[in-house]
Write a structure and sequence with these properties.
Largest sheet: 8 strands, parallel
Number of helices: 10
Mean pLDDT: 96
Strand order of the largest sheet: 1-10-7-6-5-4-3-2
Distance between the termini: 29 Å
Order of helices and strands: EHEHEHEHEHEHHEEEHEHH
Helix content: 25-40%
Number of strands: 10
Strand content: 5-15%
Length: 291
């Protein structure tokens, strides 16, 4: 069975219950959410987020809690060694996000590894590892999944080898996983027309057992652009057929795929994109149905 979902909102008054309802309206059997606005550290207490009601609705619809993915906010930069206050904020806030993920009952929290800014790659990678090796609390039931990145500026994670370097420096690497983003690896220079070879490289460098989430996105840029601009399925340089192959790849059957594709004229595209993936064929007129 295809495990497919999308990024959904989490807003008052229903919070996570509303997130689950939104995901179900698109035909999802998985979903991804932020526990608060990704641009700031303001957070509603978890006891106000209707978690138990959301769990009941998930159970009614046969959706496992491990298929609810939490995405850490973009403002966390665990690789910053230049500004001490930024490093301390990152450590404090990533722990809070792990605690909130645990309170929700989710298992996987996706995290952008960070940017080393004016330091060096090795210094940035060491700082990421130090952030997690020195956390004040051990949130044992949450696995942080480092996301593959496109390589903008000083982003860490544009190659599988860079992610492996982080894992090598962690005290307990078995407690960490990977999220593979198709737009990001395309923009980083990986050739999705040879996805089996890409998976082999991933397996050799990181191990497929570490892969727990796939972000299924097309790209507005050519391969190797290092720009990270998502496109709707079939609207970019990756194309629907390749993304459909990724979605249905036999080695990825048990892994949740999450759409982070752009809204079209203010409307979410997810129901129709998911419908096409379930059918395994592209509808040239799908946007007219949306609009």
């Amino acid at each position: 069975m295809l495990k497919i979902g999308c990024h959904v909102k989490m807003n008052a008054p229903d919070y996570i219950l509303g997130s689950v309802k939104e995901a179900l309206s698109y035909g999802c059997n998985a979903l991804m959410l932020y526990t608060g606005a990704p641009q700031n550290t303001m957070r509603v207490p978890t006891q106000n987020m209707k978690i138990e009601e959301a769990k009941s609705l998930l159970e009614e619809n046969g959706i496992a809690l491990e298929d609810v993915i939490v995405h850490a906010p973009y403002i966390i930069n665990c690789a910053n060694v230049v500004k001490k206050e930024v490093a301390e904020l990152a450590k404090e806030f990533v722990l809070k996000e792990m605690q909130r993920t645990s309170a929700i009952g989710a298992k996987y929290m996706v995290l952008h590894p960070g940017s080393y800014t004016s330091a060096t790659l090795d210094e940035g990678i060491t700082q990421i590892a130090n952030t997690f090796n020195t956390l004040e609390e051990d949130v044992k039931d949450v696995m942080v999944c480092f996301e593959t990145m496109a390589g903008k500026g000083s982003e860490i994670g544009k190659t599988f080898e860079e992610l492996a370097m982080i894992l090598e420096k962690l005290n307990r690497p078995e407690r960490f996983g990977i999220c593979l983003d198709t737009c990001h690896i395309h923009d980083a220079g990986y050739d999705l027309t040879e996805f089996d070879k890409v998976l082999d490289m991933f397996d050799h460098t990181l191990g497929l057992s570490r892969l727990h989430v796939v972000h299924l996105n097309d790209s507005k840029n050519e391969k190797g652009s290092h720009k990270d601009r998502h496109a709707n399925l079939g609207d970019g340089y990756v194309g629907f057929d390749l993304l459909n192959q990724v979605a249905h790849h036999p080695k990825l059957t048990s892994i949740v795929k999450i759409l982070e594709t752009p809204y079209i004229d203010g409307k979410p595209p997810y129901a129709l994109e998911i419908e096409m993936l379930k059918k395994g064929s592209y509808d040239e007129k799908w946007k007219t149905r949306l609009l």
